[in-house]
Write a structure and sequence with these properties.
Elements (H helix, E strand, L loop, with lengths): L15 H4 L1 H16 L1 E2 L9 H7 L10 E2 L2 E2 L5 H18 L3 E3 L5 H12 L5 E5 L15 H5 L1 E5 L10 H11 L3 E4 L10 H11 L2 E5 L4 H5 L12 E5 L10 E5 L5 H12 L5 H14 L2 H23 L3 E2 L8 E5 L7 H10 L2 E2 L1 E3 L13 E5 L1 H6 L3 H20 L5 H16 L6
Parallel strand pairs: 1-13, 5-6, 5-7, 7-8, 8-9
Antiparallel strand pairs: 2-3, 4-10, 9-10, 11-12, 12-15, 14-15
Helix pairs in contact: 3-11, 4-11, 5-10, 7-8, 12-15, 13-15, 15-16
Length: 429
């Protein structure tokens, strides 16, 4: 008796170009786009070929709920080994006892921590969004801002730096359940000991969100948040150079059940096991000696780009950078973020608009630009290239200042030079 024919011929053999030309063409165009531009978006990086391979692996097919050794689905022996490896590598890399590697994003990791240590209506103390904070740290439009009473600290108008005495005072006065250190656009190194004093003054737990500088911590180019932090969250992309996802790290045994239960069943169901595996691969890469060289290069490149932008007269919030990112205040040039980012993109330099402290412009426009160097460093660009990038940024923005209605001349000149730089640093075949 002949077996029944497959309902979908080619299901196990046909590739994307054959089965879905529209999506295949979009991927081809995206690869072409990234080859010809220089990505300066601080939240982006370029994963290894191994990480790409794992994310497209057969692990996509497996469903489990729970944690290694305690799953709600059978057939988990291999994925248990994968997740256990990711946990062990995260703990080794960041010097902690416990890790949850299942969060799908940094926001979900932060939400899980809130779910684990606070109740709706409790007070949390976090950086104001315009000062460099993050949506998941209590922004009014986010779940975290709707369920909790949020007290914000900001930065000093005089120098764009955190006033740690103010943070301690706010914690003492408002008695938050959680103090959050870290954000998405604060470029200077955080004083973890000062945040610990603030948490102790208010009887709070301390969460450090190190999403943007986790790669520097992993490579020894930034002070680690432990032992000052109670809990640390990070994304696994950005400077850590892994897949899109997140980690939660901690040392206190008493937090193990609340945090794990907050992730599952509190916020997520089955983890994306192909992403967990890719996290394990990226964490293994970060444990290799060469990653320390990468982290040192990221920091050197960020400071080089920052200094050269300052040479061209741009004001950097906080006066510089100790991380992979920097925030430029465009108000002295009479520019705003959205048209500046659009003009730069047309010139092949991809950055993002960003609010600045006390920003009074519309959130669709904003007054700042955020730059990051992690992806371009992975690609192989060096100090000379980052100095050149700052010169090219300055040329585009000066053209925009002089010709706000039509900056095509400057954009065209710069686009040609950017293409020349990009061609020298290929990525995937």
């Amino acid at each position: 008796m002949n077996p029944a024919p497959l309902l979908h011929p080619g299901y196990f053999t046909a590739g994307i170009a054959q089965t879905d030309p529209l999506i295949a063409e979009a991927i081809v165009r995206e690869q072409a786009r990234t080859r010809g531009v220089i990505e300066l978006i601080a939240s982006e990086n370029i994963v290894s070929r191994a990480v790409l391979e794992v994310q497209g692996s057969i692990l996509t097919n497996k469903t489990v709920e729970g944690y290694p050794g305690k799953r709600y689905h059978a057939g988990a022996v291999n994925v248990d080994a994968v997740e256990a490896a990711a946990i062990a590598r995260a703990c080794q890399l960041f010097g902690c006892r416990f890790a949850n590697v299942q969060p799908h994003s940094g926001s979900q990791a932060n939400h899980a921590v809130l779910h684990a240590v606070a109740e709706p209506g409790d007070t949390i103390l976090a950086m104001d969004l315009n000062a460099g904070g993050h949506l998941s740290h209590g922004a009014a439009v986010n779940f975290s801002g709707k369920w909790f009473k949020v007290v914000n600290y900001g930065v000093r108008a005089a120098d764009g730096l955190i006033d740690y005495d103010e943070v301690v005072d706010l914690a003492r006065r408002h008695r938050p359940r959680l103090v959050i250190a870290g954000g998405s656009a604060y470029a200077r190194a955080l004083d973890f000991a000062a945040f610990r004093r603030a948490a102790d003054a208010g009887g709070a737990r301390l969460l450090v969100d190190m999403a943007h500088f986790a790669g520097l911590v992993a490579g020894g180019a930034h002070e680690p948040p432990f032992p000052h932090a109670d809990i640390v969250t990070t994304t696994t992309y950005k400077s850590l150079r892994g897949p899109r996802g997140a980690l939660i790290l901690w040392n206190d045994e008493a937090l193990r059940k609340p945090i794990n239960n907050a992730v599952f069943p509190g916020l997520q169901g089955t983890p994306s096991l192909q992403v967990v595996a890719a996290k394990a691969v990226a964490l293994g890469e970060a444990l290799k000696p060469e990653f320390a060289c990468y982290a040192a290069a990221v920091l050197a490149h960020a400071r080089t780009l920052a200094a050269r932008l300052q040479h061209h007269g741009f004001h950097l919030v906080g006066g510089g950078t100790d991380t992979p990112l920097m925030l430029v205040d465009l108000r002295p040039q009479g520019l705003t973020g959205a048209p500046a980012a659009q003009s730069l993109e047309r010139a092949g330099l991809v950055a993002n608009m960003n609010p600045i402290p006390s920003d009074a412009t519309d959130l669709k426009v904003m007054s700042g630009l955020r730059f990051g160097v992690s992806g371009a460093t992975t690609r192989g660009l060096g100090l000379a290239e980052f100095e050149a990038i700052a010169d090219l940024v300055a040329e585009v923005l000066e053209g925009l200042r002089q010709h706000p209605g039509d900056n095509t001349a400057a954009e065209g000149r710069v686009r040609e030079r950017v293409a020349g730089i990009a061609a020298r640093f290929p990525t995937y075949a």
